[in-house]
Write a structure and sequence with these properties.
heterodimer; A: mainly alpha; 3 domains; 2 strands; elongated; B: alpha+beta; Arc Repressor Mutant, subunit A; 3 strands; globular
């Protein structure tokens, strides 16, 4: 049945009373459905279509009154607590970097660098928060394709580095190092773009997963690869379990889970010797003191001699190491900030920091579960997975449960302009899903942003003499 | 018999929650169902129902979802959440106590222990 112009005008008028534009499509749609339902019921009672439509409008009431009442309910929600938790962690990171910088180095280079990094980081966070995650959904396919094509091109860069314009040397490793934490978010955007693409969608998802894994191998850090595979696999299975590709939930789950499980088995079988060696290093690092066990021994000594509150002592190897590096070297400050935190400030500082981040992640996860649109869920879950795996990997490295250095950062805390910038950007998108996610639906994302209609009114008048 | 609207105002939340107890419904269906169950004594207005539904959803008492059944347009259904069910039980108890007290007063009964 044709939708009468009076209905659309009524619903639009009511929706336009809402000051929060993001909530307008939802309200407009619901009122339109209500008017149609009412009209259909009246017609079933014997009324003709025109009379039923007019009566439906009359019974529904005044659009201005309805819109004003709905306006009082709908307000964007600022996740203040999550903002505060993230700010606390970032400030703790800045304070800790300043403490280490002033104590161990003549110049407070790291502290200055960290505070400078926080400025563009905050700008990125606010930009992502106010532009909101629907921006990613509107340009999902081109964004995902360009990003993955760029990853392929970046993977082709020469190892080590190259000369740019003859005078500037660009280190490939440094250039690419910060990118992996962003990959799950871009994979989520790609998955969103593959809605209903059936078998081709599943195939494209696996191709892009392979591209991301190849990029991580190129960077290279095995932990990055591990955390990326975990995040992307979880997102892919989540989509499959929701029947996102249009092949049916069971078939999609089978099509995605089996290759992923096969990959894991394949890696475990091929890398069995490597994994066994890493386990041996963790269990008895002193047997490998001249090789990969050295780092584990030094870090473990620092942890064992740490106090609950206040600076701790050192062991024989860690004393030598600290003397050699005149404090704690730059590499260590970036890669083992949590060990250093425990050594300098005590276990309580680490417990407080981990509690803050856990609170942030748990609170955000509980709120994200209420999201209605798939885009909001994918974006928020990808960011949460990225933060969780980054933090877990970093913590495991610094507590010497993994004998290799982490390539990732402890979100918002550790030193590094790229990691801070990208993590803040991701946090901005995550918080934007909590701000507007409750009223955003996937079909509204495709329709684009709500814009007030600009009507040009031209009137002519003349006076007769 | 015409009814004083203010009698309904305080219990609208309870009535809406009760409607959703046992069956998910969409907005128009709720208006119709309430009218049917009350023998047309209560007529819920659109301007009252939707803001109430949206605010209940905001408080996580109900959950909405879209369902594309046989209608031309997908409808937004509301489902009573666990938190909403608990509030409904509370409100029902309150209401029972309240109506019992009003009945006692109307029947002219008094408290025997009062001085």
């Amino acid at each position: 049945m044709v939708l009468p112009e009076t209905f659309t005008h009524f619903a639009r008028t009511a929706a336009e009373q809402l000051r929060w534009k993001a909530a307008r499509p939802l309200v407009e749609d619901e009122l339109l459905t209500h008017l149609c339902d009412q009209r259909d019921a009246l017609m079933a009672g014997g009324m003709d279509e025109a009379a039923a439509a007019a009566e439906s409008l009359r019974l529904t009431g005044d659009p201005y009154e309805i819109g004003t009442a709905l306006d009082r309910v709908h307000r964007p929600k600022t996740p203040k607590l999550l903002f505060a938790l993230a700010a606390l962690i970032a400030l703790a990171g800045l304070a800790f970097t300043a403490l280490v910088s002033f104590r161990d180095y003549e110049l407070s280079y790291f502290a200055v660098h960290q505070s400078v990094a926080l400025l563009p980081g905050t700008a990125a966070l606010l930009a992502a928060y106010f532009l909101d995650f629907t921006l990613l959904g509107r340009f999902a396919l081109p964004l995902a394709l360009v990003f993955h094509a760029a990853l392929v091109l970046l993977s082709l860069l020469p190892l080590g580095g190259f000369w740019l314009f003859r005078y500037t040397y660009v280190s490939t490793h440094i250039l690419l190092r910060g990118l992996p934490p962003l990959l799950p978010l871009m994979f989520a955007v790609l998955l969103y773009a593959l809605r209903g693409r059936r078998g081709w969608g599943v195939f494209a998802a696996f191709v892009c997963l392979a591209v991301q894994c190849m990029f991580c191998l190129r960077v290279p850090c095995l932990l990055d690869l591990g955390f990326l595979f975990l995040c992307d696999s979880a997102l892919l299975i989540f989509c499959a379990r929701n029947g996102w590709f249009g092949l049916g939930k069971k078939l999609e789950t089978l099509l995605t889970t089996l290759p992923l499980a096969a990959d894991i088995v394949w890696v475990l079988v091929l890398g069995a010797n490597w994994f066994a060696r890493q386990l041996a290093i963790v269990l008895d690092p002193h047997s490998y003191i001249d090789g990969h066990g050295y780092q584990t021994v030094v870090l473990r000594e620092l942890l064992q001699n740490a106090k609950f509150i206040g600076p701790g002592g050192v062991g024989p190897y860690s004393a030598q190491h600290l003397a050699r590096w005149e404090g704690f070297g730059m590499v260590d400050l970036q890669a083992h900030a949590l060990t250093l935190l425990v050594h300098r400030c005590g276990w309580l500082a680490l417990i407080a920091l981990v509690t803050l981040l856990t609170a942030l992640l748990v609170l955000a996860f509980r709120r994200c579960r209420r999201q209605k649109s798939m885009l909001a869920r994918l974006v928020s879950y990808s960011v949460l997975l990225s933060f969780t795996t980054q933090a877990a990997a970093y913590l495991c490295c610094d507590l010497t449960l993994i004998p290799i250095s982490s390539g990732v950062a402890f979100p918002f805390f550790t030193f590094g302009i790229k990691t801070i910038l990208l993590n803040m950007l991701q946090l901005g998108f995550l918080l934007s899903t909590l701000r507007v996610g409750s009223v955003v639906r996937d079909k509204d994302v495709a329709a684009g942003p709500v814009r007030p209609k600009r009507r040009l009114r031209v009137s002519f008048s003349w006076e007769s003499a | 018999m015409s009814m004083d609207k203010s009698l309904l105002a305080g219990s609208t939340t309870m009535l809406v929650l009760k409607l959703l107890d046992g069956q998910d419904m969409y907005g128009y269906q709720m208006i119709e169902e309430l009218a049917r169950r009350s023998d047309h004594a209560f007529a819920l207005k659109t301007g009252t129902l939707y803001p109430l539904l949206h605010s209940l959803e905001e408080k996580e008492l109900i959950i909405s979802y879209e369902k594309d059944e046989y209608a031309a347009r997908p409808r937004r259904y509301y489902h009573l959440a666990r938190k909403g069910r608990a509030l409904l039980r509370e409100k029902e108890e309150e209401w029972t106590e309240f109506t019992a007290a009003v009945d006692r007063v109307l029947r002219g009964g008094g408290c025997l222990g009062s001085a």
